[in-house]
Amino acid sequence: MSIEKIFFFCDAPELAQLRLQDPSTTTMEGLLEFNKHLLFVITIIVMLVGWLLFATISNFDEFNSQESQSFFHSNALEIVWTSLPALTLLSLASPSFTLLYSMDEISTPEISVKVIGHQWFWSYEISDFDTMATCMDSDKTLKYTCYLLTEESISEKNYLGFFRLLETNKRVLLPSNTHLRLLVTSVDVLHSWTIPSFGVKVDACPGRLNQVNVFLKRIGMFFGQCSEICGVNHGFMPIALLVVPSIQYHYFVVSKLF
Known about the structure:
- The chain is an alpha+beta fold.
- The protein folds into 2 domains: 79 residues, Helix Hairpins (Orthogonal Bundle), CATH 1.10.287; 150 residues, Cupredoxins -  blue copper proteins (Immunoglobulin-like).
- Helix content is 33%, strand content 24%.
- It has 5 helices and 10 strands; from the N terminus they run H-H-H-E-E-E-H-E-E-E-E-E-E-E-H.
- The strands form 2 sheets. Strands 3-2-1-5-8 form a 5-stranded mixed beta sheet. Strands 4-10-9-6-7 form a 5-stranded mixed beta sheet.
- A hairpin with a 4-residue loop joins strand 6 and strand 7.
- The radius of gyration is 25 Å and the shape is elongated.
- The N terminus is likely disordered.
- It holds the Pfam family COX2_TM.
- Belongs to the cytochrome c oxidase subunit 2 family.
- It is found in: Membrane; Mitochondrion inner membrane.
- One of its GO terms (molecular function) is cytochrome-c oxidase activity.
């Protein structure tokens, strides 16, 4: 039985969703682990502060205390309330900086994907097919222009199971288990190319290329949206990516370009 039949991968928003989407990259796995670590620390802090407040109100309430209490300097207490926050911040800084530097690590890419933001749609240019250099011209480029698939189009063509405001007229095809380089830019205003399952959120700035490396660990259908307020149709420029096995992707590229 395949792993897809054992586990349900949440790669798109759900109704009343309370958890993050399932990871498909090592970056997102690291973000989820750090999120769990951070939630544990926050829970301990909330419980400790809550207990201190309850104990203080209960023990030093004017109606329960017969005598007024006086409190002076305590070196031990000052050491505790200074060292505990410092140790807490240190426990958060170490995994945070480790994850931050691992996200900035650049590997030699096999395929380059140029993502261009427009008002209000995305276009893609896929090139640098290094793994297929022996069988095809490396100067060849795949181009996509992806617009929002409207509700009328979905209902007219009876696209069952399609997600409202997340589907596009073309789905960008990408290979799994392949080092990808994303080059993100914009032609007009600021956009942000974001896919939660990838753990990727890259700003698209006019006149500038932002680069990020992605290694997709599994196949599936992944959705995202622009995460930068870019104008009146900001909420209507979704991202739809279909990740397939690398060998299947190679056959697709060869059939498209030759």
